[in-house]
Amino acid sequence: MTNPIFRAEHVSKAYAGHVALRDVSISVAEGSIFGLLGPNGAGKTSLIRIINQITAPDTGNLWFGNERLQQHHLHRIGYLPEERGLYKKMKVGEQALYLAQLKGLSKKDALIKLKYWFEKFEIQTWWNKKVEELSKGMAQKVQFIVTVLHEPQLLILDEPFSGFDPINTNLIKSEILELRKKGTTIIFSTHNMGSVEELCDNIALINNAHVILEGNVTEVRNRFRSHVYEVQFGGGMMDFSHSLGTYGELLSHGPEGSLMEAKVKLVNDATTNLLLGNIMRAVEVHGFREVMPSMNDIFIRAVEESKQEAKSVIQ
Amino acid sequence: MNKILLIIQREYLTRVRQKSFIIMTILGPVLMAGIFIVPVWLALQQSDDSTVLVVDDSFLFTDRMQNTENITFIYTTESLDSAKSALTAEEGVDAVLYIHKDIMTTTKGIQLVYETQPSIHAIRHIETVLSNDIEKFKLAKYGINQATMDAAKTNVSLVTKKIDETGQENSANTEVSMMVGLFSGLLIYMFIFLYGVQVMRGVIEEKTSRIIEVIISSVKPFELMMGKIIGIALVGLTQFLLWIVLTTSLISGSQAIIESQFSKDDLGGQSIEEVMSSNQVAVPQEAEEEVAQFNEAALDDFMKSFDTINFAVIIGSFLFYFLGGYLLYSALFAAVGSAVDNEADSQQFMLPITIPIIFSFVMAQYVISNPEGALSFWLSIIPFTSPIIMMVRIPFGVPYWELALSMAMLVIGFIGTTWLAGRIYRTGILMYGKKINYKELWKWLRYH
């Protein structure tokens, strides 16, 4: 990778009686969107806390750009924690100003930027409202603004979509894409696999304190592809399944409107052309495409595989 | 450093703007001033003029008692019973004064029967006039002239002086010292609790609202803790300062108003301060004569001894011990707040912290009667009890080296508790859902 804005090398962290991270290394390219995935308790939040210097690792090195990760880098990092909150009794504007200043912005700059964001989200009227007067969705918008206000180089979002209604989820997604266009690097951890497919360039999947899968999303999906194809056709099911021969294995079938649809797995090292040739002789093909594994499926498979591996190691 | 200033500013402004702060700031001085002003004001109430019907069986006082601005004397030759019926029947008579014929032998049995209660002043006036006149009669009867009598009058008031090691003598009045000592001890006790608990509440609020996660990505936990502690200290100091300013201006303002409205005659020859101080003292009826004289002398002494108390030292020490005691305990309160998830759970940890504070307040009584004793000495040195106990001792005079030692120990004390609290705080603020006990806390102390 030419320009990793962030690197973790062989990071380990253990709490009393519980290992949170074991020899974890990741590399995040500048200007990319990086997905940090994993089941609950896998160690994602621990790693995120370490990046934000809320806790220190037991072993390992962290790099921000070309330097070791230090306190002053926090001014260039934005963090939206999973458990997020605001001072209930404080006014929105005043509080946003306070948090921005803590991140290193001058009061003047903060006010200008806040104005921009409040207008963008159309929430100018909330400036003098107390946080407790806002609805949950409103508060989430404020939380997001507060996170990105100081224009961080690296934005870390822990479960950014949890608790957001579909409209706000969409809003956040478009903001993330827009920020990426401006050159911001984004790391987000999530269970929402759909968003991973939509947004992420690269991912790392953590289970049981170590990384079990990592790489570019497209490449990973390729890795896990199982050569399954979806065929839409007109004709009889019996004819279709007979035509598969030794090239294909019928996985599922059913009507799709006026046509039939079937999922076929390519077997015995056959090529798609061979299979397609057979099918074309038997039925009228209207559609033929590969079904790429969803991140959801990959997630489940990868976790399963690592469990199996762990078991075999013990045995 | 800049971040700590930001935090201090935020903690200060949010609390100073609260309604509760403003109410407390106004209420305190009003109550304090009220305690001084209201009794005076009541005592001076002479809204009702009294008409007193005098039944003088001794014939010594008829036409002798002069009418004052508010009391009109009517002399009658009626019998006591008919006078009493006149009292109930007529509108114009408020009270009946009965002087029996043996008044030169015994003063017992002089009665004042009233329909509407006369003011304290009217009563006092009548008593003074009667006793003065009876005295004069007796003197004349025994052949002593007034001048001789006056010359013989003696008034002894002890001037108490304290001699310290250098041989210097200072006059001191014990009661005043007691008052000042107890009062400052009480104030420090109150303030430590009041503001220490605010620190704890603030920490718990940040935990429950989860804003702590956001802030912790911008500042170090220790900075947040110190910013909060110092910010709240400033709130306390502000409130204290406002109290002093408001109370003194209220009292002197009211004094001025009262003085302008009442001339000295109405007060029976006393100044406002004298009325105030003599009203504070509850005196049985018979001894009032003596008390009137005693008051004059004691008042002098009272005022004198206020001068001997070194107010500069007291106020300076008060500020130091208030801040020091607060810093010491608020760090512990912050640690407790970080260890729990809500205020209800904090009770179990509050107890060991509040025991030394309450203990020192209870021991204040002992220290007052024994300011030089060994126990008092140690209690004024140990940082957990010294803020209250040393303040109690100071009006009685404390050697400078003891004061210096106590202050040094307090500084070490709060540095120690702050360090300790810092280690607990930084782990506790991110810990949720676990039932914390002392074993846990000990573990946290040792995390790096």
Please supply descriptive tags for the structure shown above.
heterodimer; A: alpha/beta; Rossmann fold; Alpha-Beta Plaits; 6-stranded mixed sheet; 4-stranded antiparallel sheet; 10 helices; B: alpha/beta; D-Maltodextrin-Binding Protein, domain 2; 2 domains; 4-stranded mixed sheet; two-stranded antiparallel ribbon; 6 strands; 67% helix
Overview of this protein structure:
Chain A contains 10 helices and 14 strands. In chain A, strand 9 (202-207) and strand 10 form a beta hairpin. The two termini of chain A are 37 Å apart. Helix content of chain A is 37%, strand content 30%. In chain A, the strands form 3 sheets. A 6-stranded mixed sheet of chain A has the order 6-7-8-3-9-10, sandwiched between helices. By secondary structure, chain B is of the alpha/beta class. Chain B folds into 2 domains: 2-38 and 173-248 and 308-446, no CATH class; 50-152, 3-Layer(aba) Sandwich (D-Maltodextrin-Binding Protein, domain 2). Chain B has helices at 2-16, 19-44, 80-89, 120-142, 146-152, 174-208, 211-215, 221-261, 272-280, 288-308, 311-339, 347-369, 374-381, 386-393, 400-428, 438-446, and strands at 50-56, 71-76, 95-99, 111-114, 161-163, 169-171. The two termini of chain B are 23 Å apart. The model of chain B is unreliable at 277-298 (pLDDT under 50). At the A-B interface, strand 6, helix 2 and helix 4 of A face helix 1 and helix 7 of B.
Q: State the shape of chain B.
A: elongated
The number of domains of chain B: 2
**Distance between the ends of chain A:** 37 Å
Number of E strands of chain B = 6
| Anisotropy-based shape of chain A | globular
Count of DSSP H/I helices of chain B: 16
Look up the CATH topology of the largest domain in chain A: Rossmann fold
Mean pLDDT of chain B: 79
Number of domains of chain A: 2
Described by its quaternary structure, the protein is heterodimer
From the alpha-carbon coordinates, what is the Rg of chain A to the nearest angstrom?
Answer: 24 Å
Q: In this structure, how is the largest beta sheet of chain B organized?
A: 4 strands, mixed
| Strand coverage percent of chain B | 5-15%
The stretches of 5 or more residues of chain B where confidence is low (pLDDT under 50) are: 277-298
Mean residue pLDDT of chain A: 88
